[in-house]
Specification:
The protein has 145 residues and is mainly alpha-helical. The protein has helices at 4-10, 43-66, 71-88, 96-100, 103-106, 118-140. The chain folds into 2 domains: 1-38, no CATH class; 43-140, no CATH class. The protein is globular. The chain crosses the membrane at residues 73-94, 115-136.
Length: 145
Amino acid sequence: MRSAFSLHASVGCPAPSLTGRNLLPAPRHRCQLPGRRRSTGAGRGELGFLASNAHLLGIQLLLNGFLPRWGTAITWTVYGLSMLAAMSGSLFSLPPEAIKATPFGAIARVPAEDFTWDAQVVLLVAALATGLLAMLRFTQRDIAV
């Protein structure tokens, strides 16, 4: 079990002082205010997954336009294989080029690597291209109402 001092020290706040005759806690530190959280700097990492997910959404739309019965199954297969390759491709002795070829392997792992826009832009352009092709295909399909 963690003591109050180790808990506060781990988040960078001073420990409360409840010693001696003064049983009132010390004045609140700025990081102890209710509703205020420390920034983890993870915003750019979360933004990186936007391009990968948009790319998979474009693939889903395109496959639903051309293969309506198999589109969802193929998209989930692509998603599962790309996540498996990106997360544990080194365990399966996959070459780094194969891992980087997947949508989730192309993005930077932000705390360990620097955030770059090159892979993000390529994935977003591919997502827009597949999305536009899917919309063109949807206008040509004969869907009974």
